[in-house]
## 1
Amino acid sequence: MEQRPRSLCVMVRQNFSYLYIQKWEAHHRNVEAWLMRDVEKVISSEISSKEASTILLEILINQTHLQADGLSIPLKLTNIIVPSEETQPSHLILETTHQIKLIRSVSLQLPKTLGDYHLQVVQPIYRFV
C-alpha cells in the first residue's frame, strides 16, 4: 500500500514591512556586516533594488532549514504576505510534504539577519470520514 505524502505548513510572522525590507537590504549591502560574518554575501551597490529583492529572496530560501524529528525536510516558499499597514505583521508561508507518520519535534532555522519572528507550525490530521 502506497503511503500518501503528508503536508506541513510553516507560517512565520515577522515585522516585514517595506521599511524593514529596505533595512534588511541595506544590511546586506554593508561590507562591514560581511566582515563581521553577519551576512554571507554582500549585495553590490550597483545592483538595483528589484535585483536585490531577488537576491534577498534567494538568501531567505537558501538559509531556511526545517528539521522534523531530526530529518532535514526541504521547504518551498509559497507566499509572502506584506500588509499595507506597517503596524500589521507580514507572513512568510513555507510548505512541504513528508513521509513521517507522526512528527514529534520541529526545528526551523531562518537567516539570522531577519531578526525576531513568531513561528506557527500546522500539521493537519487526516481521518476517514
## 2
Amino acid sequence: MPAFVFRLQILLDHKLDIEAKARAAVIEKRRVLEEQQSILLRLVESEERIELAISRTRDELLLAAVTNVGADVQRKNDYLAALRQDLSAAHDQTLVQKFAVEEAEMNLNEAQAHALECLREAETLTRYREKLEKRFFAEAAKKEELEQDELGTTTYLNRRAEV
C-alpha cells in the first residue's frame, strides 16, 4: 500500500512552530506582567509606609507641641516636609508603575490573541491533513478491494473454463 504524503506538511510544520513560539511569548508576557504587578505592590506599600510616617510625625508634633522647644519643632516640621516630598515622589512612581502594569496587560492580551489565532490556523491545517489522510486510506482500501474482487472473478472464470 502506498504511503500518504501531505503536500502541505511544510506549511503545517511552520504553523505549529509559530504556535509554539506564540505560546512561549504568552508565558513571557505573563511573567513580565507578574513582575510589574509585584513592583507596583511594593511601591504602594512604600507609599503607605510614608503616609503612616507622616501621620505619626504630625501626631507627635501636635501632642508634644507644648513641651517641645522651637528648634525641635522646626526640625520635625522640616522632617514632615521631607516626608511629604517623599510621598509625592512615591505617588509619582506608583502612577508610572500603574501605566507599566496596564501596558504589560495589553501586551499579554495581544500575545494571547496572536497565540489563539496561530492555534486556529494550525488546527485547521491539522484537520485538513487528517481528512485527506482518511480519504487517501479509504480510497486505497476501496482500490485494493476492487483488485481483490477482480482477482477473485478472474480466478473463478479460469476455473470454470478449465472444467
## 3
Amino acid sequence: MKKRDCVCLVLVCALVLSGCGLENIFRGRNSESPPLATPMVQSGMIGPTELVESELGVLNLYGVDASDWDTFYYVAPDGIECVELTLWYLSEGAWESAGMSRFYNAVNGRIALRFDSDALSLQCNLVDNFGSGSSIGQPMQLAEPVEGVSWGWSSLGEQLTVGMDEPVAIWLGSSTSESMHGLYDPGIGFSEPERYAEGYEDVFAFTVEFKTQPLELLY
C-alpha cells in the first residue's frame, strides 16, 4: 500500500474514532465545540471546521500533518436521498464532471480534503452521522506536472445555508503560466467560470450536493 493511501486511512480512522453520533462527529466526546454557530441543530448548512483534540492525537501518532487537510462539516436539508461529491473540470467555459461519489443516508457528517501540490492530486474522506468513514478510492489526479506552470487553490471559508439539488463548491484549484495568479473563492469561481477565460491552464472545482433523488432516477 502506498504511503498516501495509509495517510488517508489514518485520517478516516481519526475522524471515526473521535466519537459516534451527531454531536461526537462534530465535537469529539470531551472537546470544545468548534468556533461556529451550532450546526447540530440546523439543517441545510455547510462550513469549515477544525479537527478536534482526539483526532489530532491520532494523526500525530502516525506522523500525519493535519495542516495539509481542509475539513468541513455539513448538515443536509431534510428530505434528501444522498450526498453527492463531484470533481469538476472547466472545459471551454463550461464545467464537466471528472468524477463523482455518492453517499446514502449520510445526512450529517464531515468531509476532509487534501490537495497534493507536488503530485497534483486531490484526496477526499467523508465520515457520516453513523460514524462510518469512507475514502474515495485513490487520490483524484488533476493534471500532470508541467514546468513553468504554477498552481493555486482556495477552500470554503465561511458557513453557508444550502438547499437541495444545488452543487456547493468547497474547493477550487487552478493553474497558470502567467506571473500573476488570481485566486477566487470557490463559490464565486464555480458560479462565474468566465473569470477563467484568459490566462489559466487547468481549473478544477470540488462540490457537495444534497440530492432529493439519485441521478439514475431523474431520467
